[in-house]
Specification:
Chain lengths: 551, 389, 295
């Protein structure tokens, strides 16, 4: 009786014999997609990745991920113009994640813990590369090449390493001990350094080219742009680069009590705020209306807090010494931004002349690269050296990057260029070793793929600034670090856009038990059972899965 | 083994209480019960026995007969012996579940007290309530008196559990349910000898994890009915052997059919339930008057013992069916069933279908004698005939 | 990420290869429930989507045995299973009863009420998809105001039956609501219910993809918005009197929930406002009750 009943009344197998995967016409595909911050990052840093490690208190792991692309997280965490935060998806929910402050937190942790880079591979190829200039581009390239085991010699014209980071950025934005610490870590990898060694002209370059397997030329933009109509020989005129180099080196300021800084960019802010710290009254004169000043907004606000006056949308016409200091005649201008970066058109506004007084003028309208010393050897491309997409100049084995080769005048841009050039150099000198990853064409994980249900509103942990009264009269850092608990909560605000965080939502939200958790982490779709509903994709908090049509 | 006639425990019991005593002896694990006139004394007696600590059965008193049957099916599927009881409206309310119980092959035993269904309301003996359930797959047995009800309910468990089919035992409202007679209550050892401890077949068991009754395709459903047919085909023999074994133990034997003084009969009454008692009296009267009359009692109505019926009625000149039921538009159900059973039989009797006692009206022995005289030589009509006192 | 991780344990009690629609929230809920209930259990399932999902003879998608019962008698069947287990000396085996809203709010209410009144030791789970969805989408007494179904083509003219208050009036030990958007909550409530003797009823909101007109990947989102808009609050009622809000706030406007569903696409602003008002009032009443219970 039981046998008969078995066939019609009682089940005798589990449904696993029924392969519902045949219903499917789309399959979930686990693929970490680039986050918008990654796309915006000048060094292509895997931001979602390392912030995820911060959240798990794996600071060492976070640092190792960071320094994969940038050996200067403590520096970048202070002075990066952080386009990542502008791109951050979270801004569309509440406020952007304080990525830059988190990077500083990790970078500072690494320095205070004394973490060093691993020793380069012992069985390294015997090639060597000469690097001319030790600014962010040169040091970044040196680091990446050294990591690959290539011998590196840096030729620096100054008596210390760092270039713009040392001579152009005041200590209240970047403490020298931080700079020294992050540079020392690179040099400790076994980089040969030749200080006070200026390489000029075709002969010098050719000689390096012969001695080394490749040359990386990253001499920066050290020549001040002259402001028309200003006599730089007057004692009351000082160029901004000279001013910053001197003051950064601790030299006294010899200028009068009231300084007029001309320019609206970051360098002008650095000059103005440095002069202010040296006890000067400071006025900034800029062509741009205030809202269009090219300096970072925070710099303008902080400068204003520090008592710096801004005269914007105006230009100097002449300056003459008078009985009571300089009489500086100015006119209002109508400012229009041009189509290329840095380009603009101005039209003086009729009958808008006015007069300012000051004791000194510091023109701070930017610096140009000095291309003249290579002119017989290397072609220019407008104000910068000409190079192809791999940063190879027209001269075989000579690569370039940084401000000498680009108008993208940001420290982290230069770091990114150094990294890219190092890759190209590796391919050039040892094609087997240095082949770069093929560029991925994955779409960016935009806000629409983030399931905000899993991201409750949370206030941003902004880095705090030192009190204004505590800032003046010294060069202590203005921006303060996040403390550990702030860093943790801020890291938890990161959506991890496009990056799997192994939260198991996909596993648990599958109504068909068609997702396997892999032993080593990660997931696998059971194609026998997945019906292609897409719930795993919809409930992925980070947009790290997408449906792919079955072919 | 011979009957324990020397220690007879004779009690004055009405039919329903006799049923309850039989249930007690069969000792089911579970009995859901819902009150309905005239079944209620079964419920009350079982609850009284349980309250007195004489019955271990888990009792459930739900809000309806429907829920009673639903719980009965589920409990049976879980692997325990189950009893329930009802009547008329209650049985009809269960209708859906009667199909279900049979389809699920749950060997439930149910006692039904035959009663007129509404409308209009009535509380009288009439068998249309259970006869109208003839296609549900339940084995149906009809009892004539309290003693037979007690004996049959015990036999029903053995038949149900052997065939893995539910069994419904019926007796008539009041005429049996409330009629008090001396009833021999067998000893527990006697019943234990007859009815083995419950052995569950395939059932709901977490260790087995097999599910019952999931949706199936046409072919499998068809097969399930063929399997029921095979099970039903065993019920005649099971009923016979159960009745025989019971007789060996108690001295009271039963079979699917009973023939009373049919030897050489010119006219044989065919009927079920309490009517049989009256017919016995009439047969004796007719025989005393020289009229060769007899009784063919149908005890097992489903499955209908067709071979036995044909054998019992072969060469009988005249058979009169007394139907205490009415299927509107057709007539008496037993009449119809018997016509079908005897179809194409060369030596079949002339078959009269008399609607006698529908709605519980009295049918006396005198009336039956009169009917014998009136119909034994009459030409049989294919249509039913309403007869009255 | 600052999110609650799902942490119930999947022991494989619910198996792949079942025939639920792709993206079905009921299958998702079954997965949680079957694993939370465990192996020492016998199930009863009323005709419903669940019966289809569990079955497909001769295969079963669950490892515990189920009896596929009748639509109107799930609670009675469960009572029978329980009593049989008691008779067999296995009173601790869980009896799980699964039914839809048709089998619970409508045709099964009588037997459920009876089981509740008897305080039968069963765990009754109602998959409430607010209509007869397995028959193609007709209204039940659980269908909400204005929702269109096959039998309410212009929208239902009356409100959804408040089954929880009906059940609470039976003073059974445990009643709870849960949602496939809150899987930890679901697992926790099932496990809690398992520890309680007597009748436990858990109502699970199941957004029906074809029945409600919801996208294949949006059942969880819809369920989440039902909770967050307050139209389906998550709470518990213990002993019929003690109300506890599992999720104490509602944060989303009702329209975010309604607009995901085709069954509501005919609504005008006035009707949406009316629904919002009803939800607000019901929420107020419920939370007040919860606060009073807390005092």
């Amino acid at each position: 009786m039981d046998d008969m009943q078995r066939s019609t009344l009682w089940t005798d197998a589990l449904s696993e014999n029924r392969l519902t995967g045949t219903w499917r016409n789309e399959t979930p595909d686990y693929r970490n997609l680039p986050s918008p911050c990654l796309g915006a990052c000048p060094v292509s840093g895997r931001i979602a990745d390392w912030i995820g490690k911060v959240e798990k208190k794996d600071y060492r792991g976070a640092w190792e991920t960071l320094v994969d692309n940038n050996p200067f997280p403590a520096i970048a965490g202070r002075i990066c113009h952080h386009p990542c935060e502008t791109a951050c998806n979270r801004a569309q929910l509440d406020e952007t994640v304080s990525i830059c402050a988190l990077e500083r937190f990790v970078g500072d942790t690494a320095l205070s813990e004394g973490w060093a880079f691993p020793a380069p591979p012992a069985n390294a190829p015997a090639q060597s590369v000469a690097i001319i200039g030790s600014g962010p581009a040169g040091l970044s390239a040196a680091y990446q090449l050294r990591r690959a085991g290539v011998g590196v010699t840096i030729y620096e014209s100054q008596d210390q390493l760092g270039g713009l980071m040392r001579y152009g950025i005041p200590a209240y934005r970047l403490e020298k001990s931080i700079l020294d610490g992050e540079i020392a870590r690179i040099i400790d990898m076994g980089v040969t350094v030749k200080l006070n060694t200026e390489i000029t002209g075709a002969a010098g370059l050719q000689e390096l080219r012969v001695r080394h397997d490749a040359v990386y030329l990253a001499t920066g933009a050290s020549r001040p742009k002259p402001l028309p109509g200003v006599d730089y020989d007057q004692p009351w005129v000082q160029d901004s680069a000279d001013f910053l180099a001197a003051t950064n080196a601790g030299q006294d300021c010899t200028l009068g009590a009231h300084v007029l800084v001309i320019g609206g960019g970051s360098a002008a802010m650095d000059v103005a705020r440095t002069a202010r710290r040296l006890g000067r009254k400071v006025t900034v004169l800029a062509l741009e209306p205030e809202a269009m000043l090219p300096a970072q907004r925070a710099e303008v606000i902080e400068a204003t807090e520090e008592g710096i006056e801004f005269v914007t949308g105006a230009m100097m016409q002449s300056a003459e010494p008078g009985t009571d200091g300089l009489r500086i005649r100015c006119t209002r201008v109508d400012f229009k931004r041009g189509t290329t970066r840095g380009a603009f058109n101005i039209t003086p506004v009729e009958d808008s002349e006015f007069t300012l007084t000051a004791d000194a003028i510091i023109p701070s309208i930017g610096q140009d690269a000095d291309l003249s010393r290579w002119q017989d050897l290397l072609a220019g491309d407008g104000p910068v050296l000409k190079a192809d997409a791999s940063w190879h100049t027209g001269l075989d084995g000579v690569f370039t990057g940084g401000d000498v080769a680009s108008m993208d005048r940001f420290v982290t841009q230069a770091i990114g260029m150094g990294k890219e050039a190092a890759r190209s150099i590796l391919v050039y000198i040892a094609p087997d070793v240095g082949a770069a990853d093929a560029p991925a064409d994955d779409p960016e994980a935009g806000f629409s793929v983030i399931n905000t249900a899993y991201h409750p509103l949370a206030e941003r942990n902004k880095p705090q600034n030192a009190d204004v009264t505590a800032r003046l009269g010294n060069f202590k850092e203005v921006q303060q670090s996040l403390d550990q608990s702030q860093a943790m909560t801020e890291a938890s605000r990161c959506f991890s856009c496009g990056t799997c965080t192994y939260c198991d939502n996909c596993y648990f939200y599958c109504p068909d038990m068609a997702i396997t958790k892999l032993d080593g982490g990660g997931y696998e779709i059971k194609s026998d059972y997945c019906k292609g509903c897409g719930l795993c994709v919809a409930e992925c908090p980070t947009g790290a899965i997408r449906m792919q049509e079955d072919l | 083994m011979n009957a324990l006639s020397s220690n007879k425990d004779l009690q004055l019991l009405n039919g329903n209480h006799a049923v309850a005593m039989g249930v007690k002896l069969a000792n089911p694990h579970f009995a859901p019960l819902y009150p309905i006139t005239p079944q209620t004394p079964i419920l009350e007696k079982l609850i009284a026995l349980q309250s007195a600590g004489e019955l271990e059965t888990e009792l459930l008193t739900p809000e309806s007969e429907h829920s009673a049957m639903a719980s009965a099916i589920a409990a049976s599927a879980t692997g325990v012996r189950v009893f329930t009881a009802t009547s008329s409206q209650g049985l009809l309310l269960m209708h859906e579940l009667l199909h279900f119980a049979a389809g699920a092959r749950t060997p439930i035993v149910m006692f039904n007290v035959n009663r007129t269904p509404a409308s209009p309301w009535g509380f009288w003996p009439d068998q249309i309530d259970s006869l109208s359930q003839r296609d549900t797959g339940w084995v149906q047995l009809y009892s004539e008196n309290p003693q037979e009800s007690l004996d049959t309910v015990i036999q029903a468990f053995r038949i149900a559990e052997a065939a893995q089919m539910p069994v419904m035992v019926n007796h008539d409202a009041f005429y049996v349910s409330h009629a008090v007679e001396p009833v021999e209550v067998p000893a527990q050892e006697t019943v234990d000898t007859f009815l083995p401890a419950y052995k569950a077949g395939l059932h709901l068991d977490p260790e087995l994890g097999r599910s019952l009754g999931a949706p199936i395709d046409q072919k499998s459903w068809n097969e399930s009915r063929q399997q029921m047919a095979a099970a039903m085909a065993t019920v005649g023999d099971l009923t016979a052997s159960a009745g025989q074994d019971w007789g060996d133990l108690t001295g009271r034997s039963y079979g699917p059919l009973e023939q009373y003084r049919t030897d050489g009969a010119d006219v044989v009454f065919v009927t079920m339930g309490s009517m049989c008692g009256t017919v016995r009296e009439a047969v004796d009267g007719l025989r005393a008057r020289g009229i060769a009359a007899g009784l063919l009692k149908i005890r097992l109505f489903r499955p209908l013992p067709q071979v036995e019926l044909r054998k019992a009625l072969a060469d009988v000149p005249c058979a009169i069916v007394l139907d205490r039921n009415y299927s509107p538009g057709v007539g008496g159900v037993v009449h119809q069933e018997l016509k079908a059973a005897l179809f194409d039989m060369a030596n079949a009797p002339r078959l009269h279908g008399l609607l006698a006692g529908v709605g519980g009206v009295n049918v006396s022995a005198e009336m039956i004698e009169r009917l014998a005289v009136e119909y034994r030589d009459a030409v049989a009509s294919p249509d039913p005939v309403w007869v009255e006192e | 990420m600052n999110m609650e991780m799902i942490n119930y344990k999947d022991d494989g009690q619910f198996c792949s290869g079942h025939v639920a629609c792709a993206g079905c929230a009921e299958a998702l809920a079954l997965r949680v429930i079957m694993n939370a209930v465990g192996q020492d259990a016998i199930g009863v399932v009323a005709p419903s989507c669940s019966a289809v999902i569990l079955g497909g003879h001769p295969m079963s998608s669950v490892k515990i045995p189920f009896i596929h019962g009748t639509l109107e008698s799930a609670a009675a069947s469960a009572s029978g299973v329980k009593r049989a287990l008691v008779a067999q000396g296995k009173p601790d085996t869980t009896v799980l009863c699964l039914a839809g809203d048709g089998g619970t709010y409508d045709i099964g209410l009588q037997s459920l009420s009876s089981a509740a009144e008897r305080n039968e030791d069963i765990l009754y789970v109602c998959f409430d998809n607010e209509g007869y969805m397995n028959t193609g989408g007709q209204k039940s007494s659980s269908t909400p105001l204005n929702a269109t179904t096959g039998s309410t083509p212009t929208g239902k003219s009356t409100r959804k039956k408040n089954l929880i208050e009906i059940l609470a009036a039976h003073r059974i030990p445990y009643i709870a609501t849960t949602s496939p958007s809150h899987l930890n909550d679901m697992a926790a409530k099932i496990k809690k219910a398992k520890t309680i003797r007597g009748t436990k009823v858990i109502i699970v909101l199941i957004p029906c993809l074809p029945g409600w007109g919801v996208a294949d990947n949006a059942a969880v989102k819809t369920a989440r918005l039902a909770v967050e808009s307050g139209v389906f609050p998550l709470f518990e009622v213990e002993g019929g009197l003690t109300y506890t809000m599992t999720k104490a706030t509602k944060t989303q406007p009702i329209n975010d929930y309604l607009s995901l569903q085709k069954r509501y696409r005919h609504l005008n602003d006035e009707q949406i406002a009316q629904i919002q008002q009803d939800v607000d009032e019901d929420w107020q009443r419920l939370t007040t009750r919860a606060i009073e219970a807390d005092v």
